[in-house]
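lol ok so funny story. i was supposed to be doing the assay writeup but got distracted and ended up predicting the structure for this chain instead. priorities right. anyway since i did it might as well share w the group, maybe its usefull for someone
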Amino acid sequence: MLALRAVRPRAVGLLLVLASCGPSIRPGAPAGAPAPQDAPPPSAISERLPRDGASLTPSTLPFIVLPDSLNASVDAAMLEMGKALGLADSVLFARPSVARVDSANGEAEVTWDIDVTSFATHDRVARYVTMFSGSAKDRIQLRLQRGKKYEPMIREKFRAAGIPEDLYYLALVESGYDPHAYSRAAAVGMWQFMSSTARGVGLRVDWWVDERRDPAKSTDAAARFLNILHNQFGSYYLAAAAYNGGPGRVSRGLARFQDELEESVGDARFFALAEQSYLRAETRNYVPQLIAAALIGKAPSRYGMVVSDSVPRFGYDSVQVPELVSLGAVARASGSTVEEVRDANPHLLRGATPPKSNGWVRVPTGRASGFDSAFLAIPDSERVGFTRVKSGKGQTLKTIAKAHGVDARRLSWYNAGVSATKKLATGREVLVPSRDVLAGSRDVPDPSIEIYGSSSRGGGRTVHTVRRGESLGSIARRYRVSVASLTRANGLKRTVVYPGQTIIVRGGSTSRRATSKPAAKKAPVSAAKKKIAAR
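and the output, tada:
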């Protein structure tokens, strides 16, 4: 499908060696000649990779480093592709790439289902391989080891969704496979979703539940979002760039530099666009980090890393319980600890099942047996994680908290919108959590930054989050502005919008209010069990 100029077999044998920052073999250099100085690091390193100031020189490894002249030749060859192909509207799957390892060591062939080989010697990729196997080696090894727990689940879900399994390494770059990763921009979870985007791809994000922290559900959402982006851009590397920097930015860049990108197709379009210095530095470095992670992740021992496959895999059983049940009660009925149940349910933020729901709660694998009888044997007063009390005359949340032995700040968590110090109206109902609930809760910020499908105002403009089924025309009608004004304000070349996208509206007005999703009907209170096979 993609035509690349042939590269000499000798050069192909060098493709796995990636360290333009390290010492290179120079044609004709005399023995004992001094090694060249380390090249400077990339202009901006992703905030997700901490700096420690250590040298970027890699450890002594069985690498051969491509000279800069050959790097340039390979880069040029990658960009010489036929104009006729262009960007296809249909889904284009990346061709598998193969790199042969040292046969003298008896190592197996390494393959990827994203195009790693064509870009393995690109300067940015080589620098990140050098960094990841050098100064950041310990952190990358830790991330790869943590990822082993989730790798089978992620690959299975990506395979089922029809996207390359090796996009698994995006999560290494995004979060290091940490379900509780939290960025300064308030992106959360293994796949680092903002709340508006998360809701747009079907995740629940509110004060009680944040499914961005759920490894299984957030992976499903990441697969959906990557599919949307791939259908839009026709390249998984452009899709990854849009995942990081926003589809609008990538779309505008492709339109703005259309002439400069004319001879590039497929994944090479990302690297051609990155050369224009239009994308943010973090986004320009994002795909090279993905490729570097895939190179190292498939053969960590070649980079001096030890990553064990002998780790417990992600999996769980589920039991069904009514609303406002403490995780402590679930733990007792399943023969687990509160910490085990809490870890199995990273998306349950407040130590209890949310109100107006009868849902599934996870327990460690094998612990659902006998749950029914054990759960029903627990007294109602201990199963339910809250007491409803009515405030007396002159009482505040602070005085109620003191009377029930609860920290006032934590009591305010469960009574949103109620001041901790102002006097309550007499007879105001206050929800007081049990010690079991508090033990199972997470001290995390309120993720309800945005209301699903709503808008926020500030600085003379409105920021609207696109809902499923909305179009630019319907948004224009809602705010009583023209489609043309929306396209100008957002730099849009087309009128296509996608769920979770934020649209700036200037000078609009509306009296309509977003509606919340209807509460699910209560299911019969039961403790039915269902084996979940991490899928």
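The chain is about 35% helix and 10% strand. The radius of gyration is 27 Å.
back to the writeup now i swear
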